[in-house]
Design goal:
The chain is α/β, with parallel strands linked by helices and 536 residues long. Helices cover 39% and strands 18% of the residues. It folds into 3 domains: 4-74 and 134-181 and 272-310, 3-Layer(aba) Sandwich (Rossmann fold); 182-268, no CATH class; 316-527, Rossmann fold (3-Layer(aba) Sandwich), CATH 3.40.50.300. It has helices spanning 4-14, 27-40, 52-64, 77-80, 88-97, 116-121, 126-133, 150-163, 190-198, 202-213, 229-233, 240-247, 272-279, 316-321, 340-355, 370-379, 398-409, 450-461, 466-484, 503-506, 513-516, 524-527, and strands spanning 16-20, 44-49, 71-73, 139-143, 168-173, 182-188, 221-224, 254-259, 264-270, 283-288, 307-310, 322-328, 361-367, 389-391, 413-419, 437-441, 495-500, 519-523. The chain has a 7-stranded parallel sheet. It has a 7-stranded parallel sheet with strand order 14-15-13-16-17-12-18, sandwiched between helices.
Length: 536
């Protein structure tokens, strides 16, 4: 029986522990109960979660246990500010204009609320309050963004230094998103590089020279691998902000400048933030739904050999109501899926998916990338007649689109079309019949690129599988998270996943057992004649 007492005993015995369990198991609630027990034993807890939405959810769970006054939501300024201020200057402008009503800059000892507007009503700033409380309270909640933002990371390190190492527990939720390393991207306009080169910067000159030598043709190619500090700093006076941004990434594990025919990007991969964080705590608990035993070797990248617990099976009534079909004989590779026969086949599957679905309930179709989603929707989508269709191709509009989709799904069929990496794929819970079926068009491998090849070689040198870590692990994680959207209230509703690519079945041994045993491979022609919701 896995409960908070058992987890705490294992953490004290082993030092670190991985718990892999199906979406809906209750990992976040378990994390909160473990944090409560750890603090009652005299310790301190840092919880890292994926996003603001999950952080606010954790806040609600702590409130249910009567612990809200012992928790700081130490999130970034732009995350906590209801008016999306990005800097202290923007905060001041909002206050002077009267938009923000904050007047009292003193931080109250505690605030028993998870509603950011409640802070504003009390004339205090939610960012400043939680920043101050993070240095006073025993439980601090942050997001994964702290690992890639240098300013936020340094603030976090200051808190850990105040705490000391002994008795400090790190709980990292959804850790599959960060354990292969933290990736950052800085975009550079060619005109800025030209101005920088004119000021005498050698790095900008080299990049411009390489741009003239390569042919991108829509593919992102590598211009330079890493950079030299002297090349970066010479002639940087007029581009000081940009130079500082680049300088922060000097010494990262892997960096490269790339070019796609329009923009230059500095892409960097670093394992240091996670390694450093793990070394500053005495114990660590990692929670995920998609780190099967076959992927455990990846944790060696950050110097960990933790204990491992996987919840291999769902409850019997859940398993009975989940149907997962793989389209055998169909392989939607990058080149094939844009051809007319395959585009027509995808439309056939969408129509069949909708027409066989229950009279009421939400259906979601996930395309492997936002680029392919745009190509298909703008040129080839033949929407099913009489069913409201919602297209989510802009993450900034996700709340609005998802709310409308949910409302329609409560009374009739509703179709959402989006991409695999959209906000829908992870962290959003659909209750009852708000989502009864999902379709994934193609196995969601990251697009092969020169940067991807560099990462694969880097991982291989680190002693873990290059292809497995760079391509297969993200694809499996996405698949698990997308199918996981179906698992809420699965005991009361039959739900269906259609996976349109034979590679889902080929790589099922890398999937969690609860998912692998649910998969049925059926030839794609026969699948088009099958009612996936019917039968036992």
């Amino acid at each position: 029986m896995i409960n908070e007492a058992w987890v705490i005993n294992e953490l004290r015995r082993r030092g670190s522990l991985v718990i892999d369990a199906y979406p809906g198991f209750g990992k976040s609630r378990l994390a909160v109960r473990v944090a409560k027990g750890w603090v009652e034993g005299g310790g301190r807890v840092l919880i890292m979660t994926r996003s603001r939405m999950e952080a606010l959810q954790l806040c609600g769970f702590f409130s249910e246990l009567g612990l809200r006054d012992r928790v700081s939501l130490f999130l970034g300024r732009e995350v906590l500010c209801p008016f999306n201020a990005q800097s202290q200057k923007q905060c001041l402008d909002l206050r002077l204009s009267g938009v923000c009503k904050v007047k009292d800059l003193r931080s109250p000892l505690t605030l028993n609320t998870c509603d950011l507007m409640d802070y504003i009503k009390l004339s205090v700033c939610p960012y400043e309050v939680n920043r101050a409380l993070a240095h006073q309270l025993p439980i601090v909640v942050v997001t994964h963004a702290f690992l890639s933002n240098n300013e936020l990371y340094l603030e976090l390190i200051n808190i850990l230094n105040e705490w000391g190492r002994d008795g400090v527990l790190l709980i990292m939720d959804e850790f599959h998103n960060v354990i292969p390393g933290v990736e950052t991207v800085i975009t550079l306009e060619p005109r800025d590089l030209a101005r920088w080169a004119h000021d005498g910067n050698k790095l900008a000159r080299r990049l411009l020279q390489r741009i003239g030598e390569v042919v991108a043709e829509g593919e992102e190619v590598v211009l330079l691998r890493g950079f030299d500090i002297e090349e970066l700093l010479e002639g940087s006076e007029g581009m000081s902000d940009l130079a500082l941004k680049l300088l922060m990434h000097h010494g990262d594990d892997l960096c490269a400048f790339t070019f796609d025919g329009r923009l230059v990007r500095l892409r960097c991969l670093s394992l240091r933030p996670i390694r450093d964080l793990v070394n500053r705590v005495s114990n660590a608990l990692f929670l995920s739904a998609s780190v099967s035993r076959r992927f455990m070797k990846i944790l060696s990248l950050v110097g960990l050999r933790p204990g491992y617990v996987d919840i291999e099976e769902m409850p019997r009534d859940y398993a009975a109501n989940l149907r997962v079909f793989v389209a055998g004989g169909l392989k939607l590779t990058l080149n094939l899926r844009v051809s007319k026969p395959y585009v027509e086949l995808i439309n056939d599957f969408i129509r069949h998916f909708v027409n066989t679905a229950p009279p009421a309930g939400g259906l979601a179709v996930f395309f492997p990338s936002i680029e392919y989603l745009s190509f298909f929707v703008n040129n080839h989508l033949d929407p099913p007649w009489g069913v409201p269709v919602f297209v989510l191709d802009d993450s900034s509009k996700s709340s609005e689109v998802i709310d409308k989709f949910r409302e329609e799904a409560r009374w009739g069929r509703s179709l959402l079309i989006t991409y695999a990496q959209s906000p829908v794929s992870e962290g959003i819970n659909f209750l009852d019949n708000e989502l009864v079926g999902i379709m994934i068009v193609g196995f969601p491998l990251p697009q092969f690129s020169q940067w991807g090849s560099m990462k694969a070689r880097f991982y291989s040198r680190m002693g873990v599988g290059g292809f497995t870590t760079t391509y297969l692990f993200p694809a499996v994680s996405l698949t698990v998270q997308i199918i996981g959207r179906l698992l809420r209230d699965l005991d009361r509703n039959r739900k269906v996943a259609l996976l349109l690519d034979e590679r889902f079945y080929k790589y099922r041994r890398f999937m969690p057992r609860w998912l692998a045993v649910s998969m049925r491979s059926i030839n794609y022609r026969a699948l088009l004649k099958l009612n996936p919701w019917a039968g036992d």
